Amino acid sequence: MKVKVLSRNPDDYVRETQYDIQRVPRNYDPSLHPFEVPREYARALNATKLERVFAKPFLASLDGHRDGVHCLAKHRTSLSTLLSGSCDGQVKVWNLTERDVCALSKHTKDLCVEIVVRFCGTSFFTVGDDKTIKQWKMEAPAYGEEEEPLNTILGKTVFTGLDHHQKEGVFATCGQQVDIWDEQRSSPIRSFTWGVDSFSSVRFNPVETELLASCGSDRSVVLYDMRESTPLRKVIMKMRTNTVCWNPMEAYYFTSANEDYNLYTYDMRHLDKPVMVHMDHVSAVLDVDYSPTGREFVSASFDKTIRIFPKNAGHSREVYHTKRMQHVICVKWSSDNKYVLSGSDEMNIRLWKANAAEKLGVLSPRERQATNYNQKLKEKFQYHPQIRRIARHRHLPKNIYHQAKELRVMKAARHRKESNVRKHSKPGTVPLVAEKEKHVVTVVK
Amino acid sequence: MAAPGEAAVDDSHVGTQKRPPARYWQESEIEDKDGNKVQTEETSSEQSVQPKNQQKRKKRKREVEESDGKKMVVSGQEDPFPGPAPIPVNRLQKFKRKEKVKKPRGRKVRLRDMITRSEEASKMAQKQAARFDLLLPEDAGFLEGDEGEDTCTISQQDIADAVDITSGTKYFNLKLSQFGPYHVDYSKTGRHLLLGGRRGHVACIDWPSKELMCEINVMESVNDVKWLHSEDMFAVAQKKWLYIYDSNGIELHCIRKFNDVLRMTFLPYHFLLATASATSFLQYLDVSVGKEVAAFSTKTGRLDVMCQNPHNAIVHLGHHNGTVTLWSPNQKEALVKMLCHQGGVRSVAVDKTGTYMVTSGMDKKLKVYDIRAFKPFKSYFLPAGASCLSLSQRGLLSAATGDVVQVYRDVWSTPVNKPYMAHRTRGAVWGLHFCPFEDVLGIGHGDGFTSILVPGAGEPNFDGLDANPYRSTKQRQEWEVKALLEKIQPELISLNPTDLGEVDQVSFKQRHQERVEALGFDPLEKEKFVPKYKKKGRSSAGGIERRKKQVAHEDQRDEIRKTVEDKMKMEKEQKEREKKKAALFVNKSALDRFKK
């Protein structure tokens, strides 16, 4: 007779001393783990609920400006530094870790329109209502020293926008025309005009560094190449574009923030139709900024909210608002992809988490593993109705909620009317127009 | 030109070609040749795969040599184990979750990409799990007789003497003749034993250490006992009500909604206690919140045969008319009714993978069903008929006939004519239960309780996060919290537990029907033409009819036009396709491009 009976030595399964961690022998045999899918579903449901519980995006409010914050600028080399300019011409350099001002300077009496940090990070440029461009040192003046700009250029017309080249000592301003300036000279090296209208914003492409985009008040977005003497092309839309932002990863995509409550992502090569129309705001969109990964962007709106959109989705994944935040004028996504900064009318700069439910600080390996696992589960079951409902739910202020509802009703009515017209007219006379095609008037080359 | 590397091998001092080194599966073949069949099968299947791989690799290697002209390895020795270690095919099969998904054709690039990536990930997981299998510490038990010796003739005492002392102590007998026939239940980890005597005696024992946790007499007849999710609580079906006690024997609850319960079964992942009563009620109690989830009147008389399918948490009930019915808490009617026996069903058991169901009936037959297809598989005749059945984790079947307990092996794969083991107890057997993760069968009978050794019954390697027999109190508490958090809702119980992970491809028709039901009317239904009432005598009956006819005629014409258009389109497409095909098959010459 040959016999073997299961006989385990408890020492192999129990920890030796109480200072050890417990032994957990594993066996991955699927038959020992029944109900895999329903259990994962239960976990995914819990993870989704917890995500909503932990979604506390608001981190801090930086107060100190004495008028509405009009522009923000990220530092090119330092994560913790932020520059802000307000409507009273005050420029402040903030230290975000201490949430405190480390330097301040006075640009004009009236309005600081735009700030931009030089690529080296040691100085920054400002433009204001007073037709001047000023260059400032980043550090605060020493004791007894007067706060004075390094350099001042007097322009002929009012400047409304400013951006600096990524690598060279060249910057662009816009106003009556788009000017390209050399830092060493006091007159522009090139100026572009197309029609007689003024421009509200200008942006350099971060990848194809010689390219520029600007938005004009004739409802157009104009593209330029710095090496050429004439603009490249122009797309005219139904309503005015406030700002544009280039995708930092895909050089040919840019997103424009429009007055008609929408954002449009364009492919530079095919301007006749936007790649994606991003809807959700219920008032004019004032500013937009891409995340450094190029997968999402944040937009600031006159409706007192900021929203985060995935670059290829028509609707936002997140909306941030507080009771006290008024019209949001400028917004920036931090260079470490973790925070969003917004400046609004009521003189405050707010710091938000880019991912509302994310835990900040150092994660222990087990914690990180659990977070990753939960993230994967949420992705896996995201289309199940119960989970989708919880994941999508956001609380909105009453007026925005009602306004969104009203817009929905209006849109449905328009759609209904159109389909009725189509039904009662000769087939083919009332064509179906896609949403993407509705907003572009023409493309001029 | 001969590669210098090859020359070095030829000139080596060994002279002859070395044999390829032995791999672990070859050793296992030699060792386990007389062991179980599964192992040999595994080796053969895997060996068939092996040479192919090697050939491929060799070819690749040669290519490298030829292209470079010299060898990569400095010593001139070839790597005896090139590439990752091969994994036996059937071990990979064990961890296979799903068939390959058919990728969508056409322009759905992102979806296709996503499917490819997830498939890659699951493949990697499968491989890793299969590799990990090698590291499992324990092997299953076995019992083999000498030549000419039947294993069923080997007595328990002989086995207990032959094995080590600790295992030997697992064969024991509790003489409890006073409170008569006993029901038995082991906890999920297999550490704790619950005994319920017909005349009111209830005892919990930490049986490996033989430590008595509590012992009470409920002063009422006891119909069934069951552990709940942990060894902290157990349920006792008493004469009138259902009671829940804690492990100290303190009565926690008396549940008056559950009366005359005869049989109970606990669904551990749903935290549901399913009970079958003498009044033919099947009831589900959610023990985590203490609510009755569902109660159905089965209308089939006294229910004293019950078991659960551990794979999908469906409850099986056996009835007096020979049928077995399958129940879920979501449906008032039985999901399935199977006629299994002529005469009443005496006992039912379902295996761990949810593939086989074993039933025994008053017609003295023991039948094996494939319950995925609901088809009979095997039928055996037992002279005395089996009163109790129990299946172990590794698929051993124990059947009690009177006071004899027989254990069978492989009842579904091979026709069995002899039991694997047999044991005679002192009284009629009342309850049977295999202890999880141990080679032990607990028998409750008229004269108490007997624990016998059944080598090869238990799963040798447990999973520490699921059921850990050696867990500490802290670990148990942690497990309890986790288990409660991932409690599966009773609505998710269905015949196929993986349904939830699959795409719900409801047909348009079905969806439309649901919509019609929800709305109360058919939104796609065409409005019936109602002629407008016209004055001045133009709405005469004839006029109305004429107008109706006109409209009907117009509709018909539209329809005809549409079908004709469709037909034309189809034909055109067909022609184009043929043209393309023809263009492909025609021999092209280089000069064709100048043709007009």
Q: What is this structure, in a nutshell?
A:
Chain B: Residues 419-497 form the BING4 C-terminal domain. The complex is a heterodimer of chains A (445) and B (596). Chain A has 445 residues and is α+β, with helices and mostly antiparallel strands.
Helix-strand makeup class of chain A: alpha+beta
**Strand order, largest beta sheet of chain A:** 15-16-17-18-30
Number of alpha- plus pi-helical segments of chain B? 10
Ends apart, CA distance between termini of chain A: 94 Å
How many runs of DSSP E, i.e. beta strands of chain A?
30
Major sheet details of chain A: 5 strands, antiparallel
Note poorly predicted spans of chain A. none
The counted number of beta strands of chain B is 29
* Major beta sheet, strand line-up of chain B: 2-29-28-27
From the spread of the alpha carbons, the general shape of chain B counts as extended
Inertia-based shape of chain A? globular
The radius of gyration computed from the alpha-carbon positions of chain B, rounded to a whole number of angstroms, is 34 Å
